[in-house]
Every structure is written in structure tokens, then in C-alpha cells.
Amino acid sequence: MKVYIIDDHALFRNGLVSLLESRKISAKAASSPEQGLSEIPDLLVDIILLDLRMPSMSGIEVLKALKKQGNKTPVVMLTTSTDENDLRDCLKYGAQGYLLKDMDPDELVYALDEIRTGSIIVAQDMTPILAKVLRNELTDGDPSFDLLTNREKEVACQIAGGHSNKVIARELGISDGTVKLHVKSILKKLSLSSRVEVAVMVTKKSYCK
């Protein structure tokens, strides 16, 4: 696994690089959002770990900039914030994970591995807040679930359950490649840009019983 870190705190950034490398995970880091945004288009990485609070640009602004760049690499927030609005905004703008900096190293590595395979991971301490966020209005407009085929609806419900493509393929008895095609079609039909947005929309509207 290859991880790219954007964090302005040198002590934490360097410590995280050392931690990941000790777990046989390749890690490279940027000390500022600007450095990260300039380097990421030329990198082949599996996950981007992004700090939320930085002086020159917030993590939310970086998420928006990455989206404009057409970034397809999963972005995971690694922060100290347990604020409901921060979680809501990060998920709204495409973060595929929201993890806390004080989490156990083994849990971090496990979460990154799950996210790499397509899962949506939110820190366990944030679960009650996530439930509250999902009950609130998060997305603009009201894309119709009825645009999806029955199989696409099944895949969307699996996504809402936080399952990876591999797990979805196993549950539905189809190939990983077929799942990827369904996910692409779901995003296009619902005018959404990430699996997280699909999960939020499906959960908010209680489409999956």
C-alpha cells in the first residue's frame, strides 16, 4: 500500500511516516496543502491522508481542489476534530474516511486497508455523530433512486452498508469488475461523485430496508 500524507505538523507527520513504514506501508508526506496539490497529480498512491486544520488551506478546501483536479484516489481525513459539522462537510465533499489522530496504530492500518478496497470508514468514536449527520439534509437536490436498475439498487444498498467492491461481489454473486461498472453507472445516474455521497443519499432517504 502507498499512502500520501498532507499535514502541516512536522512532529506528527514524520511520526506517522515512520509508523506506516514500520508496518511495511510506503509513505510520502507534504508539509502544506499547496505542496500536496502540486505533487498528487504525478503520484501513484492508494490513499491520501489529509489533515483538517491547516493555516493556509483547510482540509475541506483541499477536498474541493482535489475534486476539481479529477482526483480518483480515496481521501481520508485524519484529524482531532469530533465536530459534527466537520464530519458532515468532509463526507459531503468526498472524503471516504474520517479517522481520529489518537486512534490505535493497528486500527489505523486496518482502516486504511479497508478503505483501499472501497469501504467507507468513520472512527468508532464518531459513530453516534455520523448517525445524527445522516439524519440531516446533506445533499442538494433529490436524485431519484428509481433511475437505477434493480441490481444497481442492490449495489447502492451494499455501498450504504460500507461494503467494499470485493464484499459486494461476494454478497451478490457477481465479479469485482461488474460491481465497478454498476458503481460507475450509479454515480452517473444520480449525479454524484463518490461512494460516500451514494451512502449518504441512500441512508437519508431510507431506500434500503
TrEMBL record:
PANTHER family: HTH-TYPE TRANSCRIPTIONAL REGULATOR YHJB-RELATED, NARL SUBFAMILY
GO molecular function: DNA binding
SMART domains the record matches: HTH_LUXR (SM00421), REC (SM00448)
Residue stretches making up the HTH luxR-type domain: 141-206
Protein's name according to its UniProt entry: Nitrate/nitrite response regulator protein
GO BP term (any one): regulation of DNA-templated transcription
Keywords, sorted A to Z: DNA-binding, Phosphoprotein
Domain Response regulatory, first and last residues per copy: 2-116
InterPro entries hit by this protein: CheY-like_superfamily, EvgA-like, NreC/VraR/RcsB-like_REC, Sig_transdc_resp-reg_C-effctor, Sig_transdc_resp-reg_receiver, Tscrpt_reg_LuxR_C
Pfam family, one: GerE
Keyword hit for Phosphoprotein: yes
Entry keyword annotation includes DNA-binding: yes
Highest taxon above the source species: Bacteria
Residue numbers carrying 4-aspartylphosphate: D51
Species per Swiss-Prot/TrEMBL record: Bathymodiolus thermophilus thioautotrophic gill symbiont
